[in-house]
Amino acid sequence: MTLFAIRETSLDPSEAIAAVSHPGAGGIATFLGVVRDTNDGRRVERLEYEAYASMAEKELARIAREIEAEIPGVRLAALHRVGALAIGDVAVVCAASAPHREEAFVASRRLIDRIKERLPIWKREHYADGDSKWVACAHTEHARA
């Protein structure tokens, strides 16, 4: 079972873990990206994510195939949230299983790094002073001013 999805609802890490679990998995590594209350010294009140969802899901699957080819025996799952998120909300879930822990850790790290680099998902930070801006966008040419 593979799981790669963009969702408007809360993310459940156990869903991604279940998607990569199997009898040969001796290690399962997860990564949760959580909304924090500050960035670059500015107080953040909430985030807003937008995505080209169908393209993002296809790219998630492509990234997973790449990593699975690089690290034999790895299974991956990823979920990314869109919409308005509050401080403490889970924005992204990555799970990787492998026969051994080292491969699971490496695969999980590669998965989140490539998601941040390549997914057509845009993040807008809303600050305590009322200002907001689009930040950390993988495809900055698509980010809105």
Molecular structure report:
By secondary structure, the chain is α+β, with helices and mostly antiparallel strands. It is built from three helices and nine strands. It has helices at residues 13-20, 53-70, 101-118, and strands spanning 3-7, 27-34, 38-39, 42-51, 75-81, 83-86, 90-98, 121-127, 132-135. Strands 3, 4, 6, 8 and 9 form a five-stranded antiparallel β-sheet that branches. Strands 1-5-7-2 form a four-stranded mixed β-sheet, sandwiched between helices. Helix 2 runs antiparallel to helix 3 (101-118). 30% of the residues are buried. Mean pLDDT is 93; it is low at 140-145.
Provide the descriptors you would attach to this structure in a database record.
single chain; 145 residues; alpha+beta; five-stranded antiparallel beta sheet; four-stranded mixed beta sheet; 3 helices; 9 strands; 39% strand; elongated; disordered C terminus
**Rg calc:** 16 Å
Low-confidence segments, given as residue ranges, are 140-145
Fraction of residues in β-strands? 35-45%
The first-to-last residue Cα distance is 39 Å
Q: What level of helicity do the residues show? A: 25-40%
Q: Determine the structural class based on helices, strands and strand pairing.
A: alpha+beta
Shape: elongated
Largest sheet: 5 strands, antiparallel
Number of helices: 3
**Number of DSSP strand runs:** 9
**String of helices and strands:** EHEEEHEEEHEE
Average of per-residue pLDDT values? 93
Kindly summarize this structure in a few lines:
Strands 3, 4, 6, 8 and 9 form a five-stranded antiparallel beta sheet that branches. With 145 residues, the chain is α+β, with helices and mostly antiparallel strands.
